């Protein structure tokens, strides 16, 4: 995710979120890319994590919900996730 996208997300979050609040993150991986643990490690043990394989088994989606304390905390997680090879941020 480039800096412009982070700035757009930051603006939207600042307009729509109040904190603390539960925020839902979504990520997609190619099913052959088994780096799910790297994403899971970005969150606390209190996060709720769900994974689902696509119908044809080509992709795996990860949905994670956790209480976030600020827009910058959300941006920080997306920033770190964007550095993981093969992850698609939604």
Task: Describe it.
Strand 2 (48-53) and strand 3 form a beta hairpin. The chain has 90 residues and is α+β, with helices and mostly antiparallel strands. The chain has one domain (3-89): Alpha-Beta Plaits (2-Layer Sandwich), CATH 3.30.70. It is built from three helices and four strands. Strands 2-3-1-4 form a four-stranded antiparallel β-sheet, covered by helices on one side.
Question: Which spans of ≥5 residues are poorly predicted at pLDDT below 50?
Answer: none
Query: At the third CATH level, what is the topology name?
Result: Alpha-Beta Plaits
Q: Characterize the biggest β-sheet.
A: 4 strands, antiparallel
Largest sheet: spatial strand order: 2-3-1-4
Oligomeric organization of the protein chains: single chain
Radius of gyration: 13 Å
Number of strands: 4
Helix content class: 25-40%
Total helix count? 3
CATH architecture: 2-Layer Sandwich
Distance between the termini: 10 Å
Helix/strand-derived category reads: alpha+beta
- Whole-number tally of structural domains: 1
CATH class: Alpha Beta
H and E string: HEHEEHE
The overall pLDDT, averaged over residues, is 90
């Amino acid at each position: 995710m480039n800096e412009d996208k982070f700035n757009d997300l930051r603006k939207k979050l600042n307009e729509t979120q109040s904190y603390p609040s539960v925020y839902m993150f979504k990520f997609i991986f190619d099913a052959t890319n088994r780096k799910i643990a790297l994403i899971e490690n970005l969150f606390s043990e209190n996060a709720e994590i769900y994974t689902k394989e696509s119908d044809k088994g080509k992709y795996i989606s990860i949905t994670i919900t956790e209480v976030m304390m600020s827009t910058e905390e959300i941006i920080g997680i997306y920033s770190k996730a964007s550095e993981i090879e093969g992850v698609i941020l939604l």
